Amino acid sequence: MKNRRQILKFLSGITFGAQISLTHKVTAATSNQKFVLQIQTGGGWDVTAFCDPKINVSGERKISKWSDNDEIKEAGNIPYAPFADNSAFFNEYHADMLVINGVDTLTNGHSIGATHTWSGRTAVGFPSLTAIYSSYYGDGLAIPYLSFGPTFSRGENLIQSIKVDDGSSLRSVLNPFVDVYSGEETQETELLYKIHEHNTISALGYANKSNTVRGNYLNRKSFFDALSSNDQLKFLADSLPGNRDFGNVNKFEKSIWTALSAFKAGTTVAADINHGHQVTQGGWDSHEFNDQKQETLMRNLTSGIDFLWKKAEELGIAERLLVIISSDFSRTPYYNSGDGKDHWNVGSYIIMERNQNYTGRVIGSTDEAQNAIGINPKTLISDDSVKLVPGHIHKALRKYLGISGTSADTYFRIDAEEDFDFFS
After folding, report:
1. Domains: count for the chain
2. How far apart are CA 289 and CA 275, in angstroms?
């Protein structure tokens, strides 16, 4: 903060118009604000090997190889497939998750599937849930909305997501004179301070001139405001992990650590992470050798989510975190000639949060061939009355997160008619 004290001391002797205030209002996420993190398993995960397990039916085509020698397991009230490292994951976190199965994305196409899953609408031009959330609750924050990887992070003029790889790249942008490995300031830091000081004085001096036209004054004031909010970005830069901190963590975990650090710093309220494309080319799109590819990705996903909650606990923000996990759609119930599985429109969501009444259960279901079974909007019991679509999930999430009824919610209206209360 040495540079800021120097600038304030210097500027204390300058006379300027009352239009500009030197008082810097540091805006940060409130202490009870939820942090929303979406994990997008891009490409289409196989939920029959995860949270909507299916066993083979005599006389029908094979739907799962793991069920040749095993059966469906259950952790608490949540059934799961004994595949990859699922047992450790579900046994550890079943009480903190709500599983919603039998959600029909109404498409087999990646682009529309991702659009529908993460915006609640099939039409192009609708923002992600995290965009609406951060545009409402992140006003005044330095970087309210972060995006990692080729995610669906559509702001649609509500807000712009900041796209980064991990904490090292973000920190190098926020402070180019910090070594990305050690996190130590380089000798050029003093030059950055001098440039910042010069630009601040220049903006004030120009705006204070009596002959400055209104348009130029507003431009210089905007420039000054950006410079004076540097404290928030500096605090975020100092809070982010560097390469030395990361050690041996993988790319997915780096993204998680960076997002959580931004939450902790109070500069960010929402983030999207594309999991699959950070692990392998094509993500979860397993048209060949389905089980081998899904097993690798699933192990990486569940270990990453375990890392997420342990790191959130370490940072003291676990109680404020809402995690949403889903995909473009799922995989076909049966294997193709290449031992893979193709696109299937019916999939699942997993929503995770600590110490909530709505967790520790499964809502929605599919039949033995993975066809969606409708549920009753009032009782949430599967009786084939209303088929779930992503719009139902988004409508409920908007209400739960307190953005239902806002101008963005009204303008980008979810067209699902029924109301489902998944969060009581």
Report:
1. 2
2. 19
Q: Which of 303, 350, 283 is nearest to 37 (CA)?
A: 350
Does residue 364 fall inside a structural domain? yes
100 with 200, same domain: the answer is no
Q: Widest CA span of the chain, in angstroms?
A: 88
Coil vs helix vs strand at 101: strand
Name the residue with tokens 């995989």: 331
C-alpha span between 129 and 110 (Å, rounded): 18
User: Which 8-state DSSP code applies to residue 331?
Assistant: E
Residue of 381 and 196 predicted with greater confidence: 381
Taking the C-alpha atoms of residue 366 and residue 384, their distance in angstroms, rounded to an integer, is 10
Given 239, 256, 271, the domain boundary residue is 239
Q: 69-89: per-residue pLDDT in tens?
A: 999 999 999 999 999 999 999
| Cα radius of gyration (the chain) | 24
Statement to judge: residues 47 and 166 lie in one domain:
yes
Beta strands 330-331 and 343-344, pairing class: antiparallel
pLDDT of the residue at 26:
37
Same domain for 271 and 133:
yes
Higher pLDDT, 98 or 176: 98
| Alpha-helical regions (H) of 96-241 | 110-119, 129-137, 167-174, 189-208, 214-228, 230-239
State in Å, rounded, how far the first CA of the chain is from the last one. 46
Structural domain harbouring 318: 33-177+242-411
- b/e per residue 73-88 (b: at least 16 CB within 10 A): bebeebbbbbbbebee
Residues 263-317: tens digit of each pLDDT:
999 999 999 999 987 777 789 999 999 999 999 999 999 999 999 999 999 999 9
CA distance 135 to 70: 47
Mean pLDDT of the region 384-408 = 97
In this structure, are 230 and 246 located in the same domain? no
Q: Is residue 345 part of a domain?
A: yes
pLDDT of the residue at 184: 66
Residues 195 and 333 both lie in one domain: no
CA 352-354-358 angle, to 5 degrees, is: 70
What single letter denotes the amino acid at residue 274? N
Same domain, 136 and 262: yes
Residue 405 within any structural domain of the chain: yes
